[in-house]
Amino acid sequence: MENIPESQLDKYEIREKDEGDITLHIQGSITAFNAASLIKEVGSILHDRVPSSLTVDLEKATYLDDYGVLALAELREMMTKRKGLFHLDNPGEKVKEILSIFDFDSLDVKVPFEKKPPPSVFIRFGEAVLDLISDAKYMVSFVGAVLLSLLYVCFHPKSLRADDTFLCMRRTGVDALPIVSLISFLLGLIIAFMSSIQLRQFGADIYVASLVSVAMTYELGPIMTAIIVAGRSGSSFASEIGTMKISEEVDALFTMGFDPTRFLVVPKILSAVITVPVLTLFSDVFAILGGLFVGVFVLHLTSGAYINQTFETLTLFDVFWGVMKSGVFAIIIAWIGCLRGFQVRGGADSVGRGTTSAVVSSIFLIVVIDSIFAIIHVYWL
User: Fold this and answer.
1) Does residue 67 sit in the same domain as residue 167?
2) Where are the extended beta strands (E) located within the chain?
3) For residue 56, what are the contacts with CB-CB under 8 A and spacing of at least 6?
4) pTM (2 decimals)?
5) Is there a single domain that holds both residue 180 and residue 64?
6) How many CB atoms lie within 10 A of CB 121?
7) Whole-number Å distance between alpha carbons of 181 and 164
8) What are the per-10-residue average pLDDT scores of the chain (381 residues)?
9) 166 shares a domain with 48
């Protein structure tokens, strides 16, 4: 028989049989104060003797805390690594209850990793359909909320947050003017240069002005401006509201008695409806200037002839048609951006996905609605 040195409060005793079996008698309690010393002292003996089995006699054990349970689990792990046996003998009712609370029998059981099989095609299709239906229901309810908020602002103009509206107008319109102007100028230059290659064969260089002006005012000016605004402002609307959503600022607004739709969405929609048509007019002007650059320096036309051909080709209806389309695009951009922001759930990853979805959805709807406008213009106007 061998005695282990006393550790702070309690005493442990080891008895070894000739067959290589070791019995550890525990007296008192095993707590955070003596669990580490128990593991260290018993572990050194197990390392030196390499027994075939270890039996822990808990007949005189009075109490175990979580550290004591972990100490017993560590001793069991030591014996498992040495391919030995481990037993617990004579635990009292209180000790049994503690071991049961910590589920000692399965404490060190290693659960095999099971790779989750990917869902089948039918499951993914069903989930996509359910998500689409849920998204459609939310979109319809959001349209109603926005319309009610706009009606309320029409009858109560003082409820509109004018400062935030002007700030959104500056961010959506003024800040976007340089990039819209540059892209429109280059686009007009490209259209003029590419069309001149074909028209020069027929001696029709002057019609480059007609092609650039009609293409930009009818289609490319409104749609390119809308795409730029969707990438800049639509994503900004979605990320701003999405961040407020996950930080519970939207819930705080509702708790304080503010209507989140009227407070956050209406200024953004109004600012987009006002500024995007103006940006479209600037886009048309700079695209015509791009075509003028090619006409003067490449086709050797006079600036007067180019401008006269432009005014002869364009009508007021042509300009109005493009501006009207851009106003519709502005509503779509602001509405989709705010909608995706309110749909954000979870953390930062959800904000990123909502922002991406806002841009993609806006551009898709812009192209679809522009196609509808093209059909209306051809068959009904």
Assistant:
1) no
2) 2-3, 11-16, 21-30, 53-64, 85-89
3) 23, 24, 26, 72, 75, 86, 87, 88, 89
4) 0.69
5) no
6) 8
7) 25
8) 42 71 80 82 78 80 82 82 80 81 67 70 89 89 92 90 92 93 94 89 88 91 94 93 90 88 92 95 95 90 91 90 94 94 86 92 94 89 68
9) no
